[in-house]
């Protein structure tokens, strides 16, 4: 052993004694990473180019990349001694790739692929091996499935490290490089990602079985063994992607600044001609932002879950930028369809049912209206109440002349149109929507340490708007008119996507009995930018949230930041791993006197129409 090896071992020994996180680089692309003491170490030995194996290993919270067996033996021995003292047991998972894919063929079906797993003879390692085998058998893949062989350590040519560590529990895993394009250095990216994700999960299940067998660590789920800290590469990419996201406000950029003049023009033509809509000039160059966006490297995160989240966000921002470049052109509609999706037949049917089921209940006489000054005061009061609970709730209120009537949130700002007039009975409900959901999740997301959770995971808007509409119901502010408006938005989006003109869509909405001003504002929103199907997300999101509650789901994870329904299991995993914190604030509307009973009704099963008067 060289003098540099001895220095390295002393450094590692000292770090282990301190019990602090370790990220020690040495040699050529060698590293010991332990983000917290754990009763296991995942190891890759050798200099061979095995990117999938290395990605599986580096996704672990405790791993070693090392070039030589002797150095591996020495480092593993030090780590094992420290962890056995702490936990009473310790296991090594040695991962690598086979030289070639021997089961591949030109058959017209996808053959299985070779995988070998040997285990030491102790009960803990046997339990781990059994759990790994069971986990791989449960994987449902549209690609190839593993054919697992279980050789003894003595006859396993890959188990060299295990034979050097006879006193330690060791699993030795080797798999065929099925992610490689045959006769080439190229890879199948999607297959590579799926292979890594599946084997990372199977490895965690194996280690969880070992900890259960040896009683070395009590955990709620195998996911709790995953990474608890993100590395600098994640922080750098997070900032870079957020810089692009903050360079533009998508909704402001596609919102007309001449709503009042457009209404006058439209009404003067007898509602027969599409009005001219004017927009804010873009404050950035789309091509430059796209260049910045795709210059962000996502391949060194050492965390497949986070890599997936950032890749999805990258793709969503790309679509938004493409939409801005196509503003007021025919391409805008189709790019918007790609971003927000079509209006599904089931959603259209639900919207039609609401409008048909409530058509005889229009209007209830005169109402007590609130002007913009009243709304601003109430908004400021609600924000101050949140500030009292957390000084980090640094929201501001702006009254704007360049918005259609109503409110919207942009980052940490609540924007209120100066022309806003609404029923006083609706003010608390709409502020619960904007402040209690949109602003609250922005500031809770800011506290997570990654800006992604404040700007929003890809596709977050659906469930976010669903939660915001639910908030209106929980404070008793869901009115017949509001529900019909949400349903009519779906009808308007469907008509626009089917090619209806602005005047034709307006006539369709008016036929449902909406007042002229409400119908115009709805159609204006639907045709902004050239035609945007975003407004279908309100009813779609509400139905998603009601379904989530009906199936016994909790709302708590949704307050951590701006997340999509599709990310619910991912958020639970990141929370279990300790990577996400509990929300700093919970919505004030949950403390409304009737909120608890209303939530119980929602969990028992209700339709949107059931929200009226309940």
UniProtKB/TrEMBL annotation:
Gene Ontology biological process terms, A to Z: proteolysis; regulation of nitric oxide metabolic process
Keyword Hydrolase in record: yes
Keyword Ribonucleoprotein: no
UniProt keyword list: Hydrolase, Metalloprotease, Protease
GO molecular function, one term: metallopeptidase activity
Domain of life: Bacteria
A Pfam short name: MATCAP
SMART domains, per the entry: DUF1704 (SM01154)
Cofactor: Zn(2+)
PANTHER family: CHROMOSOME UNDETERMINED SCAFFOLD_67, WHOLE GENOME SHOTGUN SEQUENCE (PTHR31817:SF0), PTHR31817
Entries under NCBIfam families matching the protein: QEGLA
The protein's name in its UniProt record: Flavohemoglobin expression-modulating QEGLA motif protein
Protein's organism: Candidatus Devosia phytovorans
